[in-house]
Design the sequence.
């Protein structure tokens, strides 16, 4: 069962939106996490500094937020077998490559710009997500 957290989710969404707007306003760049991360992998791009800061913020912000809120740790348990996670990660990587972007680039930034390519990509990955959840839960019996 997934816990319903409307205020935390709203706050997180607002932070993601703010980060995307600031990155576009200050650097003229789309806040696609995959593209940002790929610029940190050799050969390193000229704009390595802001990329490293953005990724560091994405990693550190949840840790800071939980410390400020007084939450010791966030409990997370995955019953999905590790090989499935690895295969799933590979499939996501292939999808990111062929769609020229990830869910943050297309779903957050592309939809905000009403990009037809991003609208199509977002519809495809949302439909694929829904189909995958249905198959895993109802055909394979869930994990």
Sequence:
């Amino acid at each position: 069962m997934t816990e319903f957290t409307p205020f935390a989710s709203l706050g997180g969404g607002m932070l993601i939106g703010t980060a995307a707007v600031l990155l576009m306003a200050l650097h003229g760049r789309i806040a696609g996490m995959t593209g940002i991360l790929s610029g940190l992998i050799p050969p390193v791009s000229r704009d390595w500094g802001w990329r490293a800061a953005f990724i560091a913020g994405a990693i550190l912000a949840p840790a800071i937020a939980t410390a400020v809120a007084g939450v010791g740790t966030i409990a997370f348990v995955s019953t999905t077998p590790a090989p499935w996670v690895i295969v799933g990660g590979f499939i996501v990587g292939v999808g990111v490559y062929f769609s020229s972007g990830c869910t943050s680039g297309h779903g957050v930034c592309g939809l905000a710009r009403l990009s037809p390519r991003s609208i199509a990509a977002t519809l495809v990955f949302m439909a694929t997500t829904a189909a995958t959840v249905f198959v895993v839960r109802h055909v394979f019996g869930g994990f």
Summary: Residues 1-76 form one domain. The two ends are 12 Å apart (CA to CA). The helical segments are 6-27, 33-38, 48-69, 82-98, 103-112, 116-139.
